[in-house]
Specification:
Structural class of chain B: alpha+beta
Oligomer: heterodimer
Order of helices and strands of chain A: HEEHEEEHEEHEHEHEHEE
Distance between the termini of chain A: 46 Å
CATH superfamily of the largest domain in chain A: NAD(P)-binding Rossmann-like Domain
CATH class of the largest domain in chain A: Alpha Beta
Distance between the termini of chain B: 35 Å
Largest sheet of chain A: 6 strands, parallel
Number of strands of chain B: 5
Number of domains of chain B: 1
Strand order of the largest sheet of chain A: 7-6-5-8-9-10
Helix content of chain A: 25-40%
Strand content of chain B: 25-35%
CATH topology of the largest domain in chain A: Rossmann fold
Order of helices and strands of chain B: HHEEEHEHE
Strand order of the largest sheet of chain B: 3-2-1-5-4
Shape of chain B: globular
Strand content of chain A: 15-25%
Number of strands of chain A: 12
Radius of gyration of chain A: 21 Å
Number of domains of chain A: 2
Chain lengths: ~250, ~110
C-alpha cells in the first residue's frame, strides 16, 4: 500500500466522503475510488467500476463476484447516531456509541442539560428537535434515539425520523407512555403503518435499570437492527425444551 | 474512560495509527481479511497492523492466526512482495496455528511503502 494512497484515503475519510480501496490480490496493485473517481494505480473496466460502486452503496467489503482477484475495501463515513435529549442515559450512551464506531450528534435545546460540562466533545446540534433533525437529514446509515420524556421535544423529532430512512428509531418510555405518544402522532397526521418502526419501549429486554445499563440495551437493539439479526430467543438453562421470546 | 482525543473520531482508526508508526520511522505492514467461509471471528475488512518492533493493533481473527500473520508480515515489511494468506481447517498450517473456529479465511498482507 503506497503512502500517497493512504494519505489520500485518510483525507477522504476526514471529509466523510465514501471511498474504497480496490486491490489486485495477485500483484498488490491498488486504486483509491473517491466519489466514483479512481486513479491510475489499477485500471478498472466499466463493469468493475459498477461493482465497486454497488459495494460502496451497500457498505459491504469483499472480493468481486466476477473477478475474485479484486478485493474492494469500503471505507464509508461512520454510522451516525442522533440522540434527542441530553439526559442521564445519554451521558452513558454517547461514549458507548462512539466506541462502537458511531458519529454521535446530540440535540437538546435546553442548555441546562446540553452543555459541554455534561457532554464534553460531542457534536451539539442547535435548534428545536424537528429543525435539528431536518438539518442532519437521517439516512439509511443513521439511528435516531429520543430520550427526553417530554412530548414537545420527542414528538417533533419522531415526526422527522419516521419520514426518513433511518435504520433504527427508538423512543424512551413505558408501554403506556408509548401508547399515548402513538395516539398523538396519529392525531398529527402521521401514517400509522410507519409506527412499527419505532422501538418503544426502547432497548432489548435485558432487565436494564441504571442509565448505563439502559444505554447498553439501546445500543444492543441498534446493533440488532443494523445487522438484521432476528429477535433474541433465550433458552431457559433449567428447561431447555422451552424457549422464551425476549 | 477513553481519552478525549480518541473519542472524538469515533472508533479506532488503525490506518491513522499505521501512518503514525511510519512517521516515527518504523516499517509497517497491514493485514486485511479479504474473504471468509463458514464461521470466522472477524468480518471481511478487519485489519491488523504491525511494525518492525512487533507493536500490534487490531485483529484478523480471535487470536488464532495472528502469530502466523505477523510472521509473514515481518518478511513483507522487510521487502518481500505483498501476499495472500489462507487459513482453514483443511489446511495443515491452520492446524498448526489452531484456527479453532472451523472456518476458512483469506488475509492479504502488504507493507506501507
Amino acid at each position: 500500500m503506497k503512502r500517497a494512497l493512504l494519505d489520500r484515503l485518510q483525507a477522504a475519510r476526514a471529509e466523510k466522503r465514501p471511498a474504497a480501496v480496490v486491490t489486485n490480490l495477485k500483484d498488490g496493485r491498488q486504486t483509491l475510488i473517491v466519489d466514483g473517481e479512481g486513479d491510475d494505480g489499477l485500471p478498472l473496466t466499466a463493469d468493475q467500476r459498477t461493482a465497486v460502486a454497488a459495494a460502496i452503496q451497500s457498505d459491504r467489503s469483499g472480493v468481486l463476484k466476477q473477478d475474485s482477484d479484486l478485493f474492494v475495501h469500503v471505507h464509508n463515513p461512520p454510522l451516525r447516531l442522533i440522540v434527542v435529549g441530553a439526559v442521564h442515559i445519554s451521558q452513558a450512551l454517547v461514549p458507548m456509541a462512539r466506541l462502537a464506531g458511531y458519529d454521535v450528534y446530540l440535540v437538546d435545546p435546553r442548555k441546562a442539560w446540553a452543555n459541554s460540562d455534561r457532554f464534553p466533545a460531542v457534536n451539539m446540534v442547535e435548534g428545536w428537535p424537528d429543525e435539528a433533525l431536518h438539518s442532519l437529514a437521517p439516512d439509511h446509515r443513521s439511528a435516531v434515539v429520543v430520550l427526553t420524556h417530554d412530548p414537545k421535544l420527542d414528538d417533533p423529532a419522531l415526526g422527522v425520523a419516521l419520514r426518513s430512512s433511518a435504520f433504527y428509531i427508538g423512543a424512551l418510555g413505558s408501554r403506556k407512555t408509548h401508547a399515548g405518544r402513538l395516539a398523538r402522532l396519529r392525531d398529527s397526521g402521521l401514517e400509522e403503518e410507519s409506527f412499527g418502526r419505532i422501538h418503544g419501549p426502547i432497548g432489548l429486554a435485558i432487565g436494564a435499570k441504571s442509565p448505563a445499563e439502559i444505554a447498553i440495551a439501546i445500543l444492543a437493539q441498534m446493533t440488532q437492527a443494523l445487522h438484521g439479526a432476528p429477535p433474541l430467543v433465550k433458552a431457559d438453562p433449567l428447561n431447555p425444551g422451552a424457549a422464551a421470546a425476549e | 474512560m477513553v481519552k478525549q482525543e480518541n473519542m472524538t473520531g469515533g472508533g479506532e482508526d488503525l490506518l491513522a495509527e499505521a501512518l503514525r508508526w511510519r512517521d516515527e520511522g518504523h516499517a509497517v505492514a497491514v493485514a486485511t481479511v479479504v474473504s471468509t467461509w463458514g464461521s470466522s471471528p472477524r468480518p471481511v475488512g478487519s485489519q491488523l497492523i504491525v511494525d518492525d518492533g512487533l507493536r500490534l493493533q487490531g485483529s484478523v481473527s480471535g487470536g488464532c492466526i495472528e502469530g502466523a500473520v505477523v510472521h509473514e508480515a515481518q518478511a513483507i515489511m522487510g521487502g518481500a512482495p505483498a501476499k495472500l494468506l489462507e487459513f482453514g481447517v483443511s489446511d495443515e498450517q491452520a492446524w498448526e496455528v489452531g484456527l479453532a473456529c472451523g472456518g476458512t479465511i483469506q488475509v492479504f498482507v502488504e507493507a506501507v511503502e
